[in-house]
Design brief:
single chain; 125 residues; 5 helices; 90% helix; 0% strand; globular
Amino acid sequence: MIIIGIILSFVALGFFCGLLFLLAVHALPVLAGATTALLAYDTGAGPIGAVLVGMIVGVVTLVGGQIAVAVAHSSLIRAAIALLFVVPAAIAGYYATRGFLHISMPAEGWRDALALIGAIRRSSR
């Protein structure tokens, strides 16, 4: 029974790590949705209304970015729109990787170097 618990703990940890890095890839829409949800909750929308407003804004941000890239004719404008999405994803990927490495790696320099690799890897998706 203990072995099954250990195996399931590793499976759950892997699932939540994957979920965290998926969130890091979509950092801008999640940030826009969460900020709008908090603003809606502070203005009296209630918890359900705030979650709905935040989800709608997050989806609109993601779809709007995809449409803007598809419609833009200039490669410079496409690059600017892509940077709006890539920079928050790289920052989130860096700090997520650094947080995981902080648990297992005591060397500060190696932790930062591997976190940089994690940021590049997460922002390139």
